[in-house]
Amino acid sequence: MKTKSDSSAGCLVMGILNVTPDSFSDGGKFFDVPEAVEQGLTMAAQGAAIIDVGPESTRPGAKPIPAKEQIGRAIPVIEKLAKKIKTCISIDTTDFEVAKAALDAGASMINDITALVDERMAKLAAEKKVPVVLMHMQGTPRTMQAEPKYKDTVTEVLAFLSARVKRAEQAGIPKQRIFIDPGIGFGKTIEHNLQLLANIDKFVKTGYGVLVGPSRKSFIGKLTGRENPADRIFGTAAAVALCVAAGVSILRVHDVAEMIDVVKIVNAIINKKE
Ligand code: HH2
To answer: Which pLDDT tens digits describe the chain residue by residue (274 residues)?
Structure first.
């Protein structure tokens, strides 16, 4: 691992690098290798501690992309970035083959939005001694926004993550390399997203590192009336500020420079708490 991306490192910013034609916010912008590498270098220079390379959009309704295609999108970018920067590179995939190829190419973290459905993924992370992100999702990207339902959102999401943490630990991944993520926007209404963010301290209290990904998501668009994801930076900043104050370890964001300012100011304020 090339950076302190373990759960004791304080609040880190993870920059999103979607090498896809169809992501909800930056789809198509970084689909070509030179543009993607440039964006990765920019985010690293801005202070991102982690660059999360995503070769498959998970926006509502998105179709799965075959492993071969994901590898073709992500690996050239990871190889080039790994040669140029020391920043930790994460692979955002649910596919074991893609994760393996990414680690071989220089990635040193796995972001699995299915939280180790494929048990080979857990073994891989244990063997390679890399951190993993375990995210909660109700349904699949294709179906998740159809009619998400919870009796008690926070309790159910926490229970799911606790079961997946157990699976990760049984596979040999130590606690300090496990991050839990409530999965903002993955099978959740605005109400569910707000409940999870309002109670994010309960996730922090588990003692595991917490990752949150509110960046430019549709609940922010709906609450502010901003249809264009690029106009949701201030709304994102509000959610990021709340998460930093609650002790979240990693914020996954599109706007690295802006959100690093938010993290700095929140930290400066909370350090003065008497
Ligand atoms: N959100 C997205 C993708 N991956 N991973 C984690 N751990 N947590 C998240 O909240 C998360 C994630 C969706 O955002 P984005 O990558 O910007 O869009 P798309 O899925 O359309 O590529």
So the answer is: 344 443 334 699 999 999 999 988 888 899 999 999 999 999 999 999 999 999 999 988 888 999 999 999 999 999 999 999 999 999 999 999 999 999 999 999 999 999 999 999 999 999 999 999 999 999 888 887 888 999 999 999 999 999 999 999 999 999 999 999 999 999 999 999 999 999 999 999 999 999 999 999 999 999 999 999 999 999 999 999 999 999 999 999 999 999 999 999 999 999 998 9
Q: How far is Cα 272 from Cα 102, in angstroms, rounded to an integer?
A: 41
What's the burial of 231, exposed, middle or buried (CB within 10 Å: 0-12/13-18/19+)?
middle
d(CA 173, CA 196): 26
- Which DSSP symbol is given to 151? S
For residue 217, indicate whether it is catalytic. yes
Provide the CA 249 distance to its chain's centre, in angstroms: 11
Return the ∠ at Cα 19 (arms to 218 and 254), rounded to 5°. 45
Q: Residue 178 is inside which H or E element, if any?
A: strand 178-181
Please answer whether residues 77 and 17 qualify as being in contact, where contact means their C-beta atoms are separated by less than 8 angstroms.
yes
Atom number, ligand 1, closest to the C-alpha of residue 59? 21
232 is known as an active-site residue: no
CA dist 83 and 125 (Å) reads 22
Cβ of 59 closer than 6 Å to ligand 1, yes or no, is yes
pTM of the model: 0.95
